[in-house]
Design brief:
Elements (H helix, E strand, L loop, with lengths): L1 E5 L9 H14 L4 E7 L11 E4 L1 E2 L9 E2 L4 H10 L3 E4 L5 H12 L3 E4 L17 H18 L2 E4 L5 H6 L6 E3 L6 H5 L4 H7 L5 E6 L8 H14 L3 E6 L5 H11 L5 E5 L6 H6 L3 E4 L8 H8 L4 E4 L2 H6 L6 E4 L3 H12 L2 H15 L4 H18 L1
Parallel strand pairs: 1-2, 1-6, 2-3, 6-7, 7-8, 8-9, 10-11, 10-13, 11-12, 13-14, 14-15
Antiparallel strand pairs: 4-5
Helix pairs in contact: 1-15, 8-9, 8-13, 11-14
Length: 381
């Protein structure tokens, strides 16, 4: 099969969606299928993959650190005609997702959409002059219309099925959890990271992801202040870049934690396993995730997780076995982390449970599930 993957975000951007696309490509190529990614270009980035087709783009706002494709697709339509696509698989319902709808309809081939994100949580990225109520109405309309035109919706987490149903996708939903390269994250080398950031004899907490408002990192910093007050040997490693990075650094300065909170900035995806191996716990306060790959990657690296109780975390963590789910309460979150860090045997047990669970989310099985879905849709056309 020839599969066209349409996305508004791809390399060099680092995100869960980008990683998920790479897993799709790896899983399908391992089964002998050809994948093409259609994505916006990125200023200063030179594309080397001949199967990645870049679209002219523009960055409209500094609130979001990714470009938006320009809606002039005539030349792109001619390129699509040459690819002989069998499946169109969108990662977003708007912009290139809308263009993908037209390609699928024109060629009469199945249209698949992966529901990665609770889009209405991202309204703060809308221009300031658009009222939130208008933005919310527009997003719901776009997502609902896109799902209506799709033949199938891939849902990475069961807790998000009700949200997809609200958009009218209850009869089109197919639960296929995200995948990771388990071995890659299990064989990380912690030593370079420990030396670089002087983490020896420290209790290291880590978060990996975009430094953005929707990640609820201000909550995490306030919780860490309480954790550090109780356990002075703790440090917090925040791995990633993003539009909220400078504001978070300001919060850390105000708290007097500049030596205890380490901002690494952007780190190559190849290095992430080393960073995870250098930590004792992965901590997450975000409530906007659907099925965050960072949690699965952390588990594969042998990290237990403490996370705010929310859909993405609830679908990934077995509370009390490979991590702990906490209500969004600063004292409760901080006390839980402190108690867990003091219990070496429990940490070790959770580490083994996390590694065991991660093995269920390998890329080959993920590719087979997608292949099966695609084949069913092709037979129904």
């Amino acid at each position: 099969m020839n599969v066209g993957i349409f996305t508004n975000a791809y390399h060099p951007i680092v995100s869960g969606v980008v990683n998920a696309i790479d897993c799709i490509r790896q899983g399908l190529s391992g089964l002998g299928h050809q994948t093409y990614v259609i994505a916006p270009n990125y200023s200063g980035y030179r594309e080397k993959d001949p199967n990645v087709i870049r679209v002219p783009s523009i960055r409209l706002t500094r609130k979001a650190d990714f470009p938006l494709p320009l809606p002039y697709f005539k030349r792109l339509e001619k390129t699509m005609d040459k690819l002989n696509l069998d499946i169109v698989h969108t990662q977003h319902p708007f912009l290139l997702g809308g263009f993908a709808e037209k390609i699928a309809a024109k060629k009469n081939i199945p249209l698949v959409f992966t529901f990665h994100t609770q889009y209405e949580i991202y309204l703060h990225y809308a221009p300031f002059f658009i009222p939130e109520a208008v933005s919310q109405w527009y997003i719901r309309k776009i997502v609902t219309e896109h799902i209506k035109r799709c033949d199938a919706v891939v849902v990475p987490a069961s807790s998000i099925l009700p949200a997809v149903a609200e958009y009218g996708g209850q009869t089109k939903s197919h639960l296929i959890p995200n995948a990771i390269d388990v071995e890659k994250f299990n064989r990380g080398n912690s030593e370079p990271v420990i030396r670089r950031f002087n983490l020896a004899n420290k209790k290291t907490l880590i978060f990996v992801g975009r430094m953005a408002v929707e990640k609820n990192l201000s909550f995490l910093l306030k919780a860490f202040k309480k954790i550090h007050d109780a356990l002075p040997e703790t440090v917090l490693l925040l791995v990633g870049g993003g539009p909220h990075l400078d504001a978070l650094k300001g919060e850390v300065r105000d708290m007097g934690l500049m030596n205890q909170v380490i901002f690494t900035g952007m780190v190559s995806y190849e290095e992430i396993p080393d960073y995870l191996k250098a930590a004792h716990l992965f901590v997450m306060a975000s409530t906007s995730e659907v099925n965050p790959l960072s949690l699965l990657e952390s588990m594969a690296a042998g990290l237990p997780i403490v996370a705010v109780r929310a859909p993405g975390a609830m679908d990934t963590i077995t509370d009390g076995q490979d991590g702990l789910l906490i209500d969004e309460n600063l004292d409760h979150f901080a006390d839980t982390v402190v108690r867990l860090l003091k219990k070496d045997q429990l940490l070790e047990t959770m580490k083994k449970n996390a590694e065991s669970k991660a093995k269920k989310f390998g890329i080959p099985e993920y590719g087979r599930k997608l292949e099966e879905l695609y084949q069913k849709l092709l037979l129904a056309k």
